[in-house]
Amino acid sequence: MIAKVLFVCLGNICRSPIAEGVFIHLVRQRGLEGRYLADSAGTGDWHRGQPPDPRAVAAAGKRGVNLPSLCRQIAKADFQDFDLILAMDRSNHEDLNSLCPPQLRGKIRLMRDFDMEAKTAADVPDPYYGGPYEFDAVYEMLQRCCASLLEKMESGSPVT
Ligand code: 4NP
To answer: Which of 9, 38, 41, 109 is the most buried (most CB within 10 A)?
Structure first.
């Protein structure tokens, strides 16, 4: 069984491509290729077809993680195709909920629900208008979330 995980933010050029790249990196590090499929998408489509923001590429690159994603917008079929859909912030979560058929809404979770250091209902802040510091902070947050998400999925605990 392959678990299909989709990371979603607003533009799909900063947060969700980092999450996707980190998750794929952790899966490979742990020898779990073939067990997981990861992708990312945006609720908006301004950057369709583009690679991630160079600042996201830099933050990941200096930690040995590459970001394979090309920007795409979330599609209705994603709610059917993926097992788990992770919203980077509460605004993305709301947008996803309104696009998603009601019976599939249980697949949508907030990314920081998997951050041990987060208080309740926390966001991964949008670094788009920030600089390298904001991108580094987002990277570290996503690294924490992805590691605990993967650990949870591997342990068989429910994540949806
Ligand atoms: P992301 O950041 O949602 O983390 O990819 C953004 C990227 C682009 C825009 C907004 C947020 N934008 O408005 O173009």
So the answer is: 9
CA distance 23 to 28: 9
The helix or strand, by DSSP H or E, that contains position 87, with its residue range, turns out to be strand 84-87
* 160 within some domain: no
SS3 48: coil
Q: Which of 14, 15, 89, 112 is catalytic?
A: 15
Out of 115, 126, 145, 146, the active site residue is: 126
**Quick one: pLDDT band at residue 14, thresholds 50, 70, 90?**
very high
For the residues 7-28, what does the mean pLDDT come to?
98
Query: Is 121 a residue whose pLDDT tops 80?
Result: no
For residue 128, being part of any structural domain is answered with: yes
Q: How far is the CA of 102 from the centre of ligand 1 (A)?
A: 26
Instruction: For Cα atoms 111, 116, 122, give the angle at the middle one, nearest 5 degrees.
Output: 45
Q: How many domains does the chain have?
A: 1
